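At this stage, I wrote out one protein's amino acid sequence and its C-alpha cells, and that material follows here:
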Amino acid sequence: ALSGKLSIDRDNIEVDRYNFKFYNDYISHFYSNKKSYLSYRDGVIYVDRVWLKEKALVHGEYNIDTLKGEFAIASANFSFKNRDFDLVSRYDLILKLDRERLFIDGTINPFGNTITYEAVGSGISEDSDIMIVQELLEKEKSALNSIKMRITIENDKPLKYITDDINIEFTNSLILIKDYNRDLKLLGTTTINSGYYQQDDKRFYLDKSHIYFSGNPQKPLLEIKATYIKEQYNIQIFISGTTDDPIINFNSDPYLTQKEILSLILFDSTGTGNRSGTELYALLGGTFAKELMKSLGISVDHLLLGQGIDERLSVEIGEKISDNITVIYQHNNGRDGVKVRVDHSDSFETNIILQPPNSSSIEFLYKSD
C-alpha cells in the first residue's frame, strides 16, 4: 500500500510525505514526513534527496534507457526493528545498477541494541546426527548471482545476541565479499566479550572468545573459552580448531582429572561408575560442542564421537553434499578412512567404506520402526 502527498512542476517532483507498506517478515514499512525531491530529464531519473524513515538519505540517478544507475545511501542513526532485530546503525553505502546486476559497496557500523534471531530456525531440520542447513539451490536460478558486494561491518559498542539457549555480547570486525555468480565470503573476526550458554540446567559462562572467518561463513576457526562452576570446582572449557574438527580441552580448580571433569559436567558428580573417560568425552562431544556451535549458527553437518574397540576415541565428521548423500571422514581404532552414506529411504541406506591402504567394504542397512 502506498500513500502520500506530492506535487509536480514540469520535470520536478516534490514529495511532501509518503507511507509505503508491503508484506515481508523483515523490511515492510518505509515512510517519511520530510520533503523529498526528484526530477526527470532526457530519460534519466535524478534522485536529489529522498528520505527513508526520516533517517537515511538517498541520492543518485538512474538512466531508463541504459538501465544503469548509481545511488548513495547514508544515515548517521538508522533504526531497524522487528521481531528478531532491534538495531541502530550508521550506514554509508553505494549501490550501482547495471541492468539486472547490482554492486553494493560501503560500511555498516552497528552501535546498539539486540539480536534475537535464531541462527538455527525454520530453515534447518535435523535427522539423527545430520543437520541440513538448506536445500542445495541451483546457482543459475539464484537471485544472489546478480549481486556483487564489498561491505565492511564494524561495531565498537557490543551488540547483544539473545535466544533461548544463549545470551552474549559481541563485537564485529568483518568484511562481506561477493562477486557475481560466486558464493558469499566472510573475512574477519567476531569477538564474544561476555555471556553464557545454557544447556538444560547447566550454565556455561563464556569468557572473552573469538570466531575467525576466512571465507566460508559456515566454517570459521574457533577460540571459545567457557567456565562452568559446580560446587567448589571451577572448570575451564576451551574449544579450538574448526567447526569440522573441533578440539575440546578442560582445566579444573581444584584439580580434577579429565575423566572427573567430564563426569562432573555430565552427571554432577566426579564419580564415573563403569564409564571410561573416552565414553564421557564422546557423550560430551555429542552434546556440548555440537549444541553450542549450533546455537552460534555454525554448521556441523555430521559430528559423532564414540569409543573404538580399543577404548580410544573414534570420530566421524562429515558433510551432506546432496539430499541423500553424505561424505564422512572416519577415525576409528587408530585408522583413518572415508564413508559415503547413501540414504535410499527412511528405512534403507548403503554405506561405502574405504580405509587405505587395502581395506574397503559395503554395508546395506535396513532400519525398522
Notes: The longest strand covers residues 101-115. Confidence is low (pLDDT under 50) at residues 119-141, 275-287, 305-311. The radius of gyration is 26 Å.
